[in-house]
Design a protein that fits this description.
Blueprint: H1 2-31, E1 36-43, H2 46-55, H3 62-68, E2 73-79, H4 82-93, E3 99-105, E4 118-128, E5 131-143, H5 144-159, H6 166-194
Parallel strand pairs: 2-5
Antiparallel strand pairs: 1-2, 3-4, 4-5
Helix pairs in contact: 5-6
Amino acid sequence: MINGLYIKYEYAKQMLQTELEILLHSFEHKHGYNPVEHMKSRMKSISSIEKKLEQKGLNNSFLNIEKSITDVVGFRIVVSFISDVYDIVSLITHSPNLIVKERKDYIRTPKNSGYTSYHLIVLVPIYLENVVEYIPAEIQVRTVAMDFWASLDHKIRYKFKEEIPEDVQQKMEEYAKDIQELDYKMYYLNQVMSKYQ
């Protein structure tokens, strides 16, 4: 049943990929540099969608997917500095071709685990048989340091099938703060470097 809907998400992914590439190219042309280290995209597998619906206590239907799962399409944009995160977020939110449905700034307000990133849920227009539909997609914008931490955090949590032991959790929170501090130090270094350019 999901397969038919899945095609729409594939179209949305292609549309969003193109839009982001155009926005980033425009930014580079205007500012003379490209702040993006790399950009990745993914589609949630059908089995992951079904599992998420089950966790939410919902049956497998088009309506439940469209209403309750906003990250079937996902993009991650990794940049050099914290200031670049907000530049890219501004670029996306001012795009006339995307509608920002939700935003979460985990940089200013990190998760308890120490996770930091900026999340956007955007609505992507797709055109099918003279009808415009808006498909949700998640965009995560983060620095290289934030991406490093998120990757390790995921691997550590995956090793513990249940709750993470308290001593490990404390160390994770401590190291997350170290990485955040390094991110801000690099930001300030970049500010100093800009004076010489």
